[in-house]
């Protein structure tokens, strides 16, 4: 009888260990399920980033009449929203043009660029693109002298130009809390000069812009 009672105690102890092991495995499985669900929610809520490109890979220039002594710069900036869930806004846009010896990453873009100017805001619906015509009339005071002379007097083309685009991307989120990113794009290589529709410019392909992630905040 004593031997049987001892065997019964061993069996109960084994069952207790088995139950404890089952609970431990179940807890691990639950944790893994929660992690997978949370990551899935993050993927669903995380919007794709806005994509930019310069149509025709060029910034066209048109010398204005002599009494104005200015050159009109004209480019088309295309914004694409790859997300199928959210609308995106590209706001507070500033464009800088740099020659091939000045890094676009400079901390003083207004001082170091050939020219800087503002562009209009863009609103891009889900899985759509929007073109924005960016125009500015530049005088010799707005541009560094050698480049103004090239475009205005000599009507040359400046090659290997980098365009930096700074702005703020606001993404609508279904939760009602907009996501705001300070964004920077580099578009290279570009031509500055020429006329819209001429034979040379028609052969230039679009130039995609590289997104350089900036700081992020919620509003």
From TrEMBL:
Which ranges does the record mark as transmembrane? 20-41
UniProt keywords, alphabetically: Membrane, Transmembrane, Transmembrane helix
User: What name does this protein carry?
Assistant: Late embryogenesis abundant protein LEA-2 subgroup domain-containing protein
């Amino acid at each position: 009888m004593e031997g049987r009672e001892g065997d019964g105690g061993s069996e109960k102890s084994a069952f207790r260990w088995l139950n404890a092991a089952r609970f431990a495995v179940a807890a691990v499985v639950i944790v893994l399920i929660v992690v997978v669900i949370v990551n899935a929610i993050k993927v669903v809520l995380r919007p794709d980033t806005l994509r930019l490109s310069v149509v025709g890979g060029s910034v066209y220039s048109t010398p204005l009449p002599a009494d104005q002594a200015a050159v009109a710069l004209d480019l088309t900036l295309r914004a694409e929203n790859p997300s199928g869930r959210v609308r995106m806004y590209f706001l507070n846009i500033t464009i800088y043009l740099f020659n091939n010896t000045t890094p676009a990453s400079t901390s003083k873009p207004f001082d170091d660029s050939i020219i800087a100017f503002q562009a209009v805001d863009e609103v891009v619906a889900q899985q759509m693109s929007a073109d924005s015509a960016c125009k500015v009339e530049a005088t010799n005071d707005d541009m560094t002298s050698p480049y103004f002379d090239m475009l205005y007097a000599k009507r040359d083309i400046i090659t290997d130009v980098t365009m930096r685009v700074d702005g703020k991307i606001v993404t609508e989120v279904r939760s009602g809390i907009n996501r705001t990113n300070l964004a920077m794009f580099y578009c290279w290589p570009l031509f500055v000069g020429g006329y819209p529709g001429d034979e040379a410019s028609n052969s230039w392909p679009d130039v995609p812009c590289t997104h350089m992630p900036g700081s992020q905040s919620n509003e």
